[in-house]
């Protein structure tokens, strides 16, 4: 008796533990990059979930910089893979999310309301079913349709950044371009990198 593709996919998704699922899009799981190595005993779950030094350092520096500029202007910065409940049984994780303080309640649940701005750094998903850029474009579209006003996606390997808005064309820039945020706040990735001592 032959097994259909749908049955194979269902069998795969049910045999993978939930802690190897990075996000869920329209009820379909997206797995962490390297999840098969965990299933095969080659790597641990912690290894595939960890960030590189550059990714972690950049996230921390951007958070510190934006915190100094935005907290006093009525904004909150959420970091560390903020869980977002989107429509159509979709759950996404955001590296950094910027909310107006009055719109976000701080509690132990995923967020149901869109941030003003989301900043993502790199991609850490299994690309067996889609390319990295297909994933990036789909996630940006999800964010914008959810109501996020601006999405910034930083790529450390190529030193490029995508800046996307719902109502204008998306643009790709090098790291030396200033990135503008609400309240006339801006940051420059090249300057952040150059500020590191040692």
What fraction of the residues are assigned to beta strands by DSSP?
A: 25-35%
Distance N to C terminus: 64 Å
Name the helix and strand elements from N-terminus to C-terminus, one letter apiece: HEEHHHEEEHEEEEEH
Share of helix, binned: 25-40%
| Total count of helical runs of at least 4 residues | 6
Largest sheet: 6 strands, mixed
Mean pLDDT: 90
Contiguous uncertain segments of 5+ residues: 1-13
Relevant terms:
single chain, six-stranded mixed beta sheet, two-stranded antiparallel ribbon, 198 residues, 30% strand, alpha+beta, 30% helix, 6 helices
What's the short story on this structure?
This protein has 198 residues and is of the alpha+beta class. It is 30% helix and 30% strand. The protein has helices at residues 5-15, 35-39, 45-49, 53-70, 132-146, 189-194; strands at residues 21-25, 28-31, 75-86, 90-100, 117-121, 150-155, 160-165, 171-174, 178-180, 186-188.
């Amino acid at each position: 008796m032959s097994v259909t593709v749908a049955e194979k996919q269902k069998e795969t998704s049910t045999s993978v533990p939930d802690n190897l699922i990075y996000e869920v899009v329209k009820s379909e799981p997206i797995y962490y990059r390297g999840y098969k190595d965990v299933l095969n005993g080659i790597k641990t779950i912690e290894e595939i979930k960890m960030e590189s030094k550059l990714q972690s350092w950049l996230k921390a520096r951007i958070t510190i910089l934006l915190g100094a500029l935005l907290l006093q202007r009525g904004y909150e910065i959420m970091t560390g893979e903020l869980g977002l409940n989107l429509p159509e049984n979709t759950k996404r994780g955001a590296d950094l999310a910027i909310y107006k303080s009055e719109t976000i309640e701080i509690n132990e649940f995923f967020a149901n309301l869109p941030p003003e701005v989301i900043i993502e750094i790199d991609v850490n998903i299994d690309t067996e079913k889609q390319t990295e850029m297909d994933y990036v474009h789909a996630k940006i579209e999800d964010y914008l349709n959810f109501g996020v006003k601006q999405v910034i996606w930083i790529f450390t390997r190529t030193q490029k950044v995508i800046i996307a808005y719902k109502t204008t064309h998306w643009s790709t820039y090098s790291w030396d371009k200033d990135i503008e945020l609400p309240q006339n706040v801006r940051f420059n990735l090249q300057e952040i990198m150059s500020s590191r001592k040692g």
